[in-house]
Design brief:
By secondary structure, the protein is of the alpha+beta class. The termini are far apart. It is globular and about 70 Å long. The chain contains 10 helices and 13 strands. The structure holds zinc ion. The site of zinc ion has 6 residues, from loops.
Length: 312
């Protein structure tokens, strides 16, 4: 098994189980998880959900065959009303959440996914950019969590048998005093034999292979996905060495936000003059903070052309 090991701390890695039409991906987020969550100061239970959403966005987005964007977005009735995570190829991520802080804190640190989100939906949007059409699939949120909801998306929208596990945790760095940092990780496998295609594996053999891969996959422990001592290659070897597993190169991930003063102005330009005047603060400027990266923009309302735009 020729693995290419690099020292990237944040990456997604594709793999293929030899002799099966089963492919998958592993994601590790360390610096990126810390950067995304550090910008927000959310309660830990919310940070955990955002980290999971981010991991799933990478697992799904890394399959894009073009330079596009994949967005994962929940909407729900509980105290966590919305979680958004997006992946822009090749490997730029960001995420945020909208929630009622008091309600979340009253649920305590061991609140379940169902306690936090209630009921709602998960939308996966793929935007290929340029003039190409966007694709969106929406499924109900599964009470068992975001990974289970994403599995539901593959079952309903794409009809590809899929298994996903994600994990997020605050871990203390060895030998680095009392500080602890966020880490997140995930793994996914898909039964591509279900797609038909050019492979001519008889369906009963493909079915047996998938059952075997799923059974091995089910042994993945949450800690294995976030523990820095467990390299992705080691995890893949533990799971699938009997069948043989080919792991591809690490694809690096980084935090990035697309916000800019121009984008904020473009959003504000859709407001009426009256709505704008309500937003003006004591210094005569309009303040707007990006929910993804917490950058604050100060916009001079005189620079906006609301109500003055010529009709086309
Ligand atoms: Zn931003």
């Amino acid at each position: 098994m020729g693995f290419e090991v690099t020292d990237t701390t944040d990456f997604v890695q594709s793999f293929q189980i030899e002799g099966m039409n089963v492919r998958g991906r592993v994601v590790h987020l360390t610096d990126v998880a810390e950067r995304v969550l550090g910008a927000h100061g959310y309660p830990d239970v919310v940070s955990g959900l955002v980290a999971e959403a981010l991991t799933i966005a990478v697992l799904l987005g890394a399959s894009l065959k073009f330079n596009g964007m994949l967005t994962l977005q929940t909407r729900s009735t509980g105290s966590v009303r919305m979680i958004v995570a997006d992946y822009t190829s090749p490997g730029i991520v960001r995420a945020c959440a909208t929630f009622d802080r008091e309600a979340v804190e009253s649920l305590g640190p061991s609140a379940s996914f169902e306690d936090l989100v209630g009921t709602g939906s998960l939308a996966i949007t793929i935007d290929p950019g340029e003039d190409m059409e966007r694709y969106q699939g929406v499924v109900p949120l599964d009470e068992d969590g975001l990974a289970q909801s994403a599995i539901g998306y593959f079952e309903r929208s794409e009809q590809i048998p899929t298994a996903i596990k994600v994990s997020a945790a605050m871990l203390s760095e060895r030998g680095q005093g009392t500080g602890s940092t966020w880490r997140a990780g995930g793994i996914m496998i898909q039964n591509l034999a279900a797609l038909g295609g050019t492979q001519t594996v008889p369906s009963d053999i493909a079915e047996e292979a998938w059952t075997r891969a799923s059974t091995l996959f089910a042994t993945v422990d949450g800690l294995e996905l976030v523990d820095p001592q467990v390299e992705s290659e080691r995890l893949l070897y533990r799971l699938f060495h009997e069948d043989g597993v080919r792991a591809f190169a690490h694809q690096p991930l980084e935090f990035g936000c697309r916000c800019s003063a121009e984008r904020v102005m473009s959003v504000l330009s859709r407001y009426s003059r009256e709505e704008l005047s309500d937003l003006v603060e004591s210094d005569g400027m309009i303040g707007a903070t990006c929910e993804f990266c917490s950058t604050t923009y100060r916009i001079n309302p005189d620079d906006l052309t609301n109500g003055e735009a010529a009709t086309p």
